[in-house]
């Protein structure tokens, strides 16, 4: 898929390695190894108590993996130890990261073979809610449980009573055995809406139960780790504001009302007050396939934290480099999305060959960007360091797609650049819709740009953007 790209990057890595070796002292052997993050098999109670446990793959054997927390500006170091039977890697989703640490096999690193290690070390420029997940055969590895939350704390955190990180996963389990259905890459999933599960969990639990007090102020950090499911969530007995999207604080927090939609890989930080009374139960509800709202997390309310609700919270402190200047005059690149079931794609280029749709389908490749299936050596766009770039995304398919850009956050361009949406790393583009994003290409390297419906990414919806070094 990416022969030349990986060779180029490999060479540059070697060159940098040689320069660094000249300039830096050789680390002494006594230096402590970074803390391990072990990718391995494990067991989890995904279904309600009383049903069998599910065999999963997880970081440190858990799904979700350990919650990682660090202060803004700190450096995070983890040694990935691969005890899985297959190669893997870790992507730190939403972190404006050093390219070599981005975890994309074939683009930024070689896959970490079974029994091998990879040392990740990178700075955390932004506070917010992020997550990490496997980025090798993601459509299988994330579905098996290889993901976890990564929280970066503000230097000056908001005034709350407590926070809860709620990471939602979507599992496709065999109804008899409660084991993960191993039909990864099933053609129907690839060509339709992606791999949908039949059980949505929060922090790995089918029915997460919590306790809270009336008028308590909670920060809820919501993360959608599902393979393909667009979550519709709503609050019952909780009232508050959307404070941040995809880690980045909103200048003007929004009322958290109605259905809160979270596409795969998106995050939402809420600050909510418990308005349910003593003895009642507050809920985070999720709309199921049956169109009904079901309790996803339940908080039993006992007592009260104070006699009154607190005043409206201040916005979260801004992160650095939030501005996207010069959008009106920026260069625009088009990304036409085609393919999938019931689509109009007749033919596209795959591995250098022009193939008819049915020949692509036989190879499990159902989608194309600008007439090309999957990532090739040529990036979608090459940007100068610091350039503002616009990408017009035309969804000429009958499915929604959650487009994720690695390495840099973007803003949604409205009214031809007269107004800009919030800074995000993933945008949901509905069927038939055209959207435009703009970002400052301020992070050098090769950055993946793909659909986060992970079966789509594996079936053609992956490209990349190159940001030059200087
Ligand atoms: Cu969260 Cu390339 O992905
Ligand atoms: Cu998609």
From TrEMBL:
GO terms for biological process: cell division. Residues 304-325 are annotated as: Disordered. One of its GO terms (molecular function) is oxidoreductase activity. This is Multicopper oxidase with three cupredoxin domains (Includes cell division protein FtsP and spore coat protein CotA). InterPro entries: Cu-oxidase-like_N, Cu-oxidase_C, Cu-oxidase_fam, Cu_oxidase_CS, Cu_oxidase_Cu_BS, Cupredoxin. Keywords: Capsid protein, Cell cycle, Cell division, Metal-binding, Oxidoreductase, Virion. It comes from Salinihabitans flavidus. Residues 43-155, 363-469 form the Plastocyanin-like domain.
């Amino acid at each position: 898929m990416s022969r030349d790209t990986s060779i180029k990057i490999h060479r540059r890595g070697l060159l940098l390695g040689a320069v660094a070796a000249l300039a830096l002292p050789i680390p002494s052997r006594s230096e402590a190894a970074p803390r391990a993050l072990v990718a391995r098999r494990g067991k989890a109670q995904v279904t309600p108590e009383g049903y069998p446990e599910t065999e999963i793959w997880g970081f440190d054997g858990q799904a979700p993996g350990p919650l990682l927390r660090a202060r803004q500006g700190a450096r995070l170091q983890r040694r990935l130890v691969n005890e899985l039977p297959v190669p893997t890697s870790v992507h730190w989703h939403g972190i404006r990261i050093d390219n070599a640490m981005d975890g994309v096999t074939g683009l930024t690193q070689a896959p970490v073979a079974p029994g091998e290690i990879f040392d990740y070390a990178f700075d955390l420029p932004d506070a917010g809610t992020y997550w990490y997940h496997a980025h090798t055969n993601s459509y299988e590895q994330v579905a098996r449980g290889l993901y976890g939350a990564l929280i970066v704390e503000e230097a000056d955190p908001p005034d709350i009573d407590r926070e809860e990180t709620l990471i939602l996963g979507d599992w496709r389990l065999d109804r008899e055995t409660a084991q993960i259905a191993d039909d990864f890459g099933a053609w129907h999933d690839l060509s339709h809406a992606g791999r949908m599960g039949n059980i949505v969990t929060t922090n790995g639990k089918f029915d997460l139960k919590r306790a809270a007090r009336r008028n308590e102020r909670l920060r809820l950090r919501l993360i959608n780790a599902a393979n393909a499911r667009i979550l519709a969530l709503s609050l019952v007995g909780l009232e508050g504001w959307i404070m941040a999207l995809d880690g980045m604080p909103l200048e003007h927090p929004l009322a958290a009302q109605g259905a809160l939609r979270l596409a795969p890989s998106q995050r939402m930080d809420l600050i909510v007050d418990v308005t349910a009374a003593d003895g009642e139960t507050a809920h985070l509800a999720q709309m199921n396939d049956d169109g009904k709202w079901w309790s996803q997390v339940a908080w039993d309310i006992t007592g009260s934290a104070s006699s009154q609700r607190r005043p409206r919270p201040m916005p979260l402190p801004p992160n650095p480099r939030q501005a996207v200047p010069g959008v009106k005059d920026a260069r625009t690149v088009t990304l036409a999305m085609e393919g999938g079931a019931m689509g109009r794609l007749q033919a596209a280029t795959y591995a250098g060959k022009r193939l008819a749709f049915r020949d692509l389908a036989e190879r499990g490749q159902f989608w194309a960007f600008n007439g090309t299936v999957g990532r090739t050596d040529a990036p979608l766009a090459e940007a100068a360091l610091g350039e503002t770039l616009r990408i017009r995304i035309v969804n000429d398919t009958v499915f929604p797609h959650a487009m994720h850009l690695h390495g840099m956050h973007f803003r949604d361009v409205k009214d031809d650049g007269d107004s800009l949406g919030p800074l995000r790393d993933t945008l949901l583009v509905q069927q038939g819709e055209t959207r435009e994003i703009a970002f400052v290409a301020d992070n050098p390297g090769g950055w993946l740009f793909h659909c986060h419906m992970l079966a789509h990414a594996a079936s053609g919806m992956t490209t990349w953007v190159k940001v030059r070094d200087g």
